[in-house]
Amino acid sequence: MQLRKPIKREDRFFVYIVQCAHGTYYTGYTNNLERRLEQHDSGKGGAKYLKGKGPISLVYAKKYRYYKSALNAEREIKTYTRKEKEELIRVYEKDK
Predict the structure, then answer these.
(1) What is the pLDDT of residues 69-93, one digit of tens each?
(2) Do residues 67 and 32 touch, judged by C-beta distance below 8 A?
(3) Between vectors from CA 96 to CA 72 and to CA 10, what angle results, nearest 5°?
(4) CA 88, CA 68: separation in Å to the nearest integer?
(5) Average per-residue pLDDT in the chain?
């Protein structure tokens, strides 16, 4: 019996932070950043947290090759304090 190697999902995956109209941050990950932002803005298919909190603005995005890397980064960022997220955003804006 021949064992098959696991298939790696290689694509473009993004971890992103959006800022809501009232100033809070939402962190997520996706394989289609443009579509996901449209979903969040429209309230159709976006995160429940963002419903009624728009408009949103993208304040941070980082591209990953593998979805597990993006998922792990999203989980880590979600543990950050507001101050830590703002520092991450500041560095991102500076390097843009």
Answers:
(1) 999 999 999 999 999 999 999 999 9
(2) no
(3) 35
(4) 20
(5) 88
Q: Which phi and psi (to 5°) does residue 19 adopt? A: -110, 130
SS3 52: coil
At position 16, the amino acid (one-letter code) is Y
Model pLDDT for residues 24-52, shown as the tens digit of each residue:
999 999 999 999 999 988 878 778 888 87
Lay out the sheet containing 25-30: strands in order across.
Answer: 25-30, 10-19, 57-66
Contacts of 53 (CB under 8 A, 6+ apart): 20, 21, 22, 24
Q: Are 5 and 55 in contact (CB under 8 A)?
A: no
